[in-house]
Amino acid sequence: MYTLMHDPNYRLAVAWQNNSYNQPPNLGFYFGGGMATPPNPNIVMVGNTNKTMSLSASGGNGEVNLNWASNFVPSSSIQVMRDTDPDPAGRTRVGIVWGDNSYTDTNVSNGTTYYYWLKTYDESGNEITVGPQSATPAAGNVANGTYAIISKSSGKAMEVYDWSTAAGGNISQWEYWEGASQFFNLTRQSDGYYTIVSDYSGLSVEIVDASNENGGNLQQWYNNGHDCQSFEFQLMSDGYYKIINKNSGLCIDLSGSDAENGANIAQWSCHDNDNQRWELIPVSSNQSARTAASIEDSEVVGPDFMLYPNPSNSGNFVVQARDANHKIQSVKVYNMLGKLAYSIQANDDRLSVSTQLPPGNYIVEINDGSSSINQKLIVK
User: Fold this and answer.
1) DSSP letter string over 217-267?
2) What is the pTM of this model?
3) Sequence-distant contacts of 29-36: CB under 8 A, at least 24 apart
4) Angle subtended at Cα 158 by Cα 225 and Cα 283, rounded to the nearest 5 degrees
5) Do the Cβ atoms of 240 and 154 come closer than 8 Å?
6) Taking CA 229 as the corner, what is the angle to CA 224 and CA 230, rounded to the nearest 5 degrees?
7) Do the Cβ atoms of 360 and 327 come closer than 8 Å?
8) Over the stretch 166-210, which tens digit does the pLDDT of each residue have?
């Protein structure tokens, strides 16, 4: 025993006695005549501990979030430094933090990798530096998968017009009926941008001729890896997305906020109107395969028309002419007793029909002005 204060019992008692009666405290062992040899305390000399910091970085949409922790209290501000490579020689200061352990860098570009360092001083004035830690802000937070892309402005779906499987097929909108021509596979690339590939044709959505101009049209084309086939999905506060072409920096736009079936989709300078906001509806692989099979196997109505989907949900279906030489003049739906249940007049090569019929079997009569053809319809 070196001193009484090396006895834990005595030391603790001194502390609490200083706050009350200041009576002589007791030891943790007998002290007096005939006492045994007191225990030897385990005394370790403590030198300067290593001062350390840990840093983590994570990329978001248009931002990089930094978080850190340390085993000391910094005696000064924490300087946040950044570069686009891990060499500290070219790093620059982008922020100063007081009394916090996090920082968000918003002066970044999606798809670019950034490297970060922290610099501060400990209580003794020693410089403490940590880093680099890297992060890449992502162009979107959309999971890879198959989606229907719905306009907020019209409530209708982006689709490959006229079921085209050819390069150059136009991208337009149509009432959403869960058809494979309205399904698109989104795949995130290493730079954070996405390719948009038609689930029906297997071709990539792109801006025609890599245009940088307002009005540049949207079409499908062979996959070639050009920036005109890459898109950023920018999540908005209302849960919809802006879709921005990497090559042009312009937004995918429902032309003129047109609510009609067949309205064109192109690119335009970005703004906050609803015709540049799009909802992503996930599509299951089973649903995609089932719809594609339905198109190939059960929708042909004679040599001149197609009717799909069949079976139909709530009696909603599309009648489409095989070519421009045929126009749909009328569509009539009869129940199995021969009673007319629905009728519509038209003069178009494609007609979206919404009958809201109860489940059952029906006969659809399609008339092109010179002849009629009948097709059985199943309503689920």
Assistant:
1) BEEEE-----GGG-EEEEE-TTS-EEEEETTT-PEEEEGGG--STT-BEEE
2) 0.52
3) none
4) 85
5) no
6) 120
7) no
8) 999 999 998 887 878 899 999 988 878 899 999 988 999 999 999
Strand 251-254 versus strand 114-121 pairing type: unpaired
Q: Which residue has the tokens 């126009």?
A: 327
Q: Cα 310 vs. chain centroid, distance in angstroms?
A: 32
Query: Using an 8 Å Cβ cutoff, are 214 and 267 in contact?
Result: yes
279-316 pLDDT per residue, tens: 999 887 555 544 444 444 445 566 678 887 778 877 88
State residue 294's pLDDT score: 45
Q: Under the phi-then-psi rule, with left for phi > 0, alpha for psi from -120 to 50, and beta for the rest, what region is 177?
A: alpha
Question: CA-CA-CA-CA torsion for 27, 32, 35, 38, nearest 10 degrees?
Answer: 40
CA distance 168 to 223: 12
Indicate the length of the chain as a whole number: 380
